[in-house]
Amino acid sequence: MKSTLYLALLCITITTSLSGKARLGEYILGFGYSMADGSEGTDNREGDFLRISASSPNDANSDLSVYLDYGTMNFGGQDASSWNLGADYLAHFQGVGGRSLRLRPYLGAGVGFIDDERPIKLGDDGFTWSLLLGTELQFTNSLSLHLGGRFLGLWSEFGENEFTVDTGITWWFDAIHGVSLEYQRAFEAELHYFTLKYLYSWQ
Questions:
Q1: Sign of the torsion formed by the C-alpha atoms of 25, 29, 31 and 34
Q2: Exposed (0-12), middle (13-18) or buried (19+): which is 59, by Cβ within 10 Å?
Q3: Do 150 and 163 touch, CB atoms closer than 8 A?
Q4: What pLDDT, in 10s, does the model give residues 168-198?
Q5: Is the dihedral of CA 9, 10, 15, 19 positive or negative?
Q6: What's the pLDDT score for residue 4?
């Protein structure tokens, strides 16, 4: 059911005739809903999360972004709340490629704070650090694909860490409004996140 829903949304998004811009180097607000699935783990977990993000250029080759994730995870019929607040610094490089495909790699670092009623993202609560690496592949002025990874852990316990792989398709309706379909895989927590996000940009 979940895969059918997201496939339908993806088809609707891609077949709309639009024009827009990239994700890196722009002022963007994001408001999204995320479904979490942990059915392949030791317990049957499902969750719903609200995802809010904001990013802005720091200079010609770097961005600053902040984010807030809040929601609940169901553990065998019992709900546990979770929230994650953080900020990232991304350094991106001049794009390489032609008009049909442009590659824009980036690397970055971030800090944050996680508070879970039950262990969801990490084994404990507290301040976190993150290292990021990825790229944006821009196919047209409207369509781009993001591929990246995040290695994160607790400041208080460096042995408590997690690695996530992130991918997403972004389509801009125009220079202001866009939408993205995103997938995230958390390996230690054995969780899959499927996210639909509305994007608002200005400048």
A1: positive
A2: exposed
A3: yes
A4: 999 999 989 999 999 999 998 889 999 999 9
A5: positive
A6: 46
How far is it, in rounded angstroms, from Cα 167 to Cα 105?
14
User: Phi then psi for 174, rounded to 5 degrees?
Assistant: -160, -160
**What's the whole-model pTM score?**
0.83
Q: What is the reported pLDDT for 11?
A: 47
Domain containing residue 18: 2-202
Residue tagged 């180097």 (tokens): 25
Q: Give the C-alpha separation, 44 to 42, whole Å.
A: 7
Q: Tell me the mean pLDDT in the region 3-16.
A: 44
Domain total of the chain? 1
* CATH at 110: 2.40.128
Residue labelled with tokens 């479904």: 35
